[in-house]
Amino acid sequence: MAINLIKLSVGTHDLAGLAKWQTNARAKGPDGNPRHVTRMWPKREAELIDGGSIYWVVKGVLLCRQPILRLDEVRRADGIPRCGIVLKPGLIPVAPTARRPFQGWRYLTPEDAPVDLDPARRDDVPLPPKLSVALAEIGVL
To answer: Dihedral of CA 67/71/72/75: which sign?
Structure first.
């Protein structure tokens, strides 16, 4: 059974900013797929690569997800092994959900994960994150 990760997207202000960052050469692995490099290796690797996604929190709001393709070992100039979470390109918008700050990443069960937005609405101009959360809390989104 799949498990997901939830991660803060530090330094981005909206989905467009996250998407732009992932086109940067520094955010891509040797195969050209976006990846997020983290210090710790997830202990539940088999569950993550069995259909799991990384859910991105932007400015305190969980806004999108990306399927996890695999985990690669990454060694930088300091020689310390790190985990490269290789992601499927493209962001999948989800129902905006408020999240408090945290460090690192956390596991997110499928039952606790927000639902994907209707594909027909994916091209809508995004609302400000706080407004999206307020509308989702009252059941409008």
So the answer is: positive
Sign of CA dihedral 68, 70, 75, 81: positive
Alpha helix locations (H) across 24-139? 45-48, 129-137
Per-residue model confidence as pLDDT tens digits over 24-53: 888 888 899 999 999 999 999 999 999 999
User: What are the angstrom distances between the C-alpha of 137 and each of 10, 93, 101, 132?
Assistant: 24, 17, 19, 9
93: phi then psi, degrees, rounded to nearest 5: -65, 140
Q: What are 73-103's pLDDT values in tens digits? A: 998 888 899 999 999 999 999 988 888 888 8
Domain that residue 70 falls in: 4-137
Least confident of 21-25, 105-109, 129-133: 129-133
Per DSSP, helices labelled H in the chain are 15-23, 45-48, 129-137
CB atoms within 10 A of CB 54: 22
Structure letter (DSSP) for residue 128: P
Q: How many domains does the chain have?
A: 1
